[in-house]
Amino acid sequence: xxxxxxxxxxxxxxxxxxxxxxxxxxxxxxxxxxxxxxxxxxxxxxxxxxxxxxxxxxxxxxxxxxxxxxxxxxxxxxxxxxxxxxxxxxxxxxxxxxxxxxxxxxxxxxxxxxxxxxxxxxxxxxxxxxxxxxxxxxxxxxxxxxxxxxxxxxxxxxxxxxxxxxxxxxxxxxxxxxxxxxxxxxxxxxxxxxxxxxxxxxxxxxxxxxxxxxxxxxxxxxxxxxxxxxxxxxxxxxxxxxxxxxxxxxxxxxxxxxxxxxxxxxxxxxxxxxxxxxxxxxxxxxxxxxxxxxxxxxxxxxxxxxxxxxxxxxxxxxxxxxxxxxxxxxxxxxxxxxxxxxxxxxxxxxxxxxxxxxxxxxxxxxxxxxxxxxxxxxxxxxxxxxxxxxxxxxxxxxxxxxxxxxxxxxxxxxxxxxxxxxxxxxxxxxxxxxxx
Length: 436
Hints:
With 436 residues, the chain is mainly alpha-helical. Helix content is 73%, strand content 0%. The protein has one domain. It has helices at residues 20-42, 46-76, 86-90, 96-107, 110-113, 115-121, 128-133, 139-165, 178-185, 192-225, 238-265, 274-305, 308-318, 323-340, 344-348, 350-376, 387-408, 417-421, 424-435. Helix 4 (96-107) runs antiparallel to helix 8 and helix 12 runs parallel beside helix 16 (350-376).
């Protein structure tokens, strides 16, 4: 095992606060997104409005929770190479309060999402198969379990971030955040060294529990909010593909954010070496391939077994007008990153790695579009992809970027020496095991 050498002098470094101009631009873009959705509703395009809201909620929320889970995974695996990476991923927590509010808004579109089984539940249509699923497929139970699932996951994300940064913000020098830092460290402060050790003990159980619940609960959210739109269709791989895609999105978004913070965003260039980018690039490459593996595993079983209900879901997406989007999704998430990052050097170049990570994120947006829209949009009406969908996406994106940079301006992007010192016993023990 190669030993990671930490710098002797690690400054307290956060992202730079947003300027008034940047806040104004982001606020305007959010208003454009809200205006696009409202205009669609007023113009009678309510179906497209709710589709756009759901697709973008699934996409941007997946990025935010995926970034935090990426930080959790780096902690669990003792990835010391990523000591300057993990906090950048953790800043995804800034979008989660908005994601929860927007989730409540999205749930008001249930009449558009769950038409098939709602009609059976009301007695308007007879369907023996769906009737057997009604104990699970009913709105009070669906809303309750999914709101609780999102609350638990987002709450655990905040608990993880709070616990991780607590040893590093005591007496921090930024006056604009002094009140927040004092509240974080104000109770039962043990001193920097003891707090770092205590944090390590707490995260030793919190991180694995959070990771397991993410797989179960976020997979359930995907199953309930997407898979049940076609009540006859089911796939045991769908929840897995849903949360794996979120994790891949989190890694890709972190790679892009690091390039920003390496330059004007926070000046982390001295701490983000070519070797760091090489390791991160290997993860981007590996999980792009893993995304293809998971989705191919879902497809090949359905194709080979020729089951009628499962085939229908695939056929809807592999025929016009969605077939081109499916091909483009595979190219963006898998083909381009696979061949573009296959060699060593592209992984070490921040701009190139960020470009391929951007391809992945665009592909994941298309993937979220493809798992939602063909299930509820009549194919004879063509492809519902235009200025309204673009406007809503821009609005969500501006809200995500603003909340992410706001969180990054408060979270120490580099761990303190006390936090790194608390890792030494584990690192040294693993080195002894490697030698033996």
